[in-house]
Amino acid sequence: MVSIITPAYRCADVVAETIKSVIAQTYPHWELLIAEDCSPDSTRKVIERWTTVDHRIKLIKLDHNVGPAMARNAALDRAQGRWIAFLDSDDLWLPQKLEQCLEFARMRDAAFVFTGFRRIPLAGGEPGRYISVPATLGYRQLLGNTAIATSTVMLDTACIGRIRMRKTYYDDFDCWLQVVKKGITAHGLDADLMRYRVMEKSVSRNKGKSALKVWRAYRDMEGLSIPLSIWYFIQYAVRGVLKYL
């Protein structure tokens, strides 16, 4: 089984589409664990209605707002599947996402899989250009790369062990670094399997603040020297600019 981890906050207008994209998967053996982070809108009510539609959808009601990292951990604590997949509450999967990722992982003997994707605007419309991914990423390659989109990732707990998020600005990027630091290679499936919804108020939209947090991740979380931090930050920034052109 695949346990799908979804933190949800102020997403009442879009979370139903996200849930529908999971129900439409060609691979049926999944559970969708949605940790609702005390939204001020009707997010929780929307999710509650969907739990009555499909028993594989499970709502985790958090008592107070804890942020995406701790919300993901609340869902991870309830996960029963061997595989962990991440899907943010405003993103969408194409129907063969799970099936193709599992087959790719089997063929490559991979414990860490991520895929390509396209961006879509909040108001709807045509998807943007396809964002391709490299074949593999190790620890040093990942430090200077923006290739891994959270909603494309799948991890095999049988190989990686328990997965936890640390409470930091880029908890997902930090988590991928901790996984590959163990010697696990991240394998990129260069296929168009996810839609990344561009939300104006999302955590990563403030590029100046995001850049500063990446720098702090190098220095504080990874303990890199200033010269190494500069080297990887330049790579990270250039790849980020190219991806957004």
Jot down its keywords:
alpha/beta; 245 residues; single chain; Spore Coat Polysaccharide Biosynthesis Protein SpsA, Chain A; globular; 22% strand
Plain-language structure description:
This protein is α/β, with parallel strands linked by helices. The protein has one domain: Spore Coat Polysaccharide Biosynthesis Protein SpsA, Chain A (Alpha-Beta Complex). The protein has 9 helices and 9 strands. Strands 1, 2, 3, 4, 5, 6, 7, 8 and 9 form a 9-stranded mixed β-sheet that branches. Helix 8 (207-221) runs antiparallel to helix 9. 37% of the residues are buried. The model has no long low-confidence stretch (mean pLDDT 92).
The CATH architecture name reads Alpha-Beta Complex
Give the percentage of residues in beta strands.
Answer: 15-25%
Our Rg estimate from Cα atoms comes to 17 Å
CATH evolutionary superfamily = Spore Coat Polysaccharide Biosynthesis Protein SpsA, Chain A
Helical residues, percent: 25-40%
The protein's oligomeric status is: single chain
User: How many helical stretches?
Assistant: 9
Summarize the biggest pleated sheet.
Answer: 9 strands, mixed
Average pLDDT, rounded to a whole number, is: 92
CATH topology (level 3) name: Spore Coat Polysaccharide Biosynthesis Protein SpsA, Chain A
Query: How are helices and strands ordered from N to C?
Result: EHEHEHEEHEEHEHHEHH
Q: Structural class given helices, strands, pairing?
A: alpha/beta
How many strands? 9
Poorly predicted regions are none
Shape label: globular
Number of domains: 1
